[in-house]
Amino acid sequence: MISLNDDHKVQVLLVELQERYNASHKMRERSTKFTLWLSGMAIGLAWLLICREEFPLTQRIALTLLIAALFVGTFVFIMGLRKGFQKNREAIIRSERALGMYDPGVYLKETTLLPAEYNKTSTRWGDHFCTLCVWLAVVTVSLLILTWTCPEAKTTSISPVKLQQTKGGQ
Q1: Cys-Cys link to 140, which of 19, 41, 71, 90 (CB 3.0-4.6 A)?
Q2: Is 108 helix (H, G, I), strand (E, B) or coil?
């Protein structure tokens, strides 16, 4: 085992903290871009649903299955990113604690460098990933409503036309 002096330990903590901060930003960016990409697809599908005059029942069912599959797949992807984000956040807090960023008087007189709220990993209603999931649920419900409220395909019965062939000049 390598023995490190305090200066080396601080350097290792600073490098680790910087890497964790970068990973945190990338996870947020990736989830946001993915959600925006799916929102663009949803706008295109919504436009198709609004502009089209009629959809047969089979197409409505197929669209419902597609929308549900996209929502479930996206939800699983976002929850995977959220889990990784939470683990990353726990590593950030451990490094920040080791550097004394939550201890009063270490960096600033009579106060801590970071607020006490930053020392918690509990999720809130308005956190990044929760907000994305709420947005995706709103988009999904909107698409399902548009899918099932568009006019149904009209079944027109064409009466058979009786054709007569005439002989002669009249």
Answers
A1: 71
A2: strand
Could you give the 3-state DSSP secondary structure of residue 13? helix
Tokens representing residue 55 in the block = 């959809």
Beta bridge partners of 152: 55
Residues 118, 125 contacting (CB under 8 angstroms): no
**Amino acid at the residue 14:** L
Look at the pTM and tell me if it is higher than 0.90: no
For residues 100 and 106, the answer to whether their CB atoms sit within 8 Å is yes
Residue 92 to residue 20: CA distance in whole angstroms: 6
Q: Which residues of 22-38 are buried (b: 16+ CB within 10 A; e: fewer)?
A: ebbeebeeebeebbeeb
In whole angstroms, give the CA distance from residue 36 to residue 41.
Answer: 9
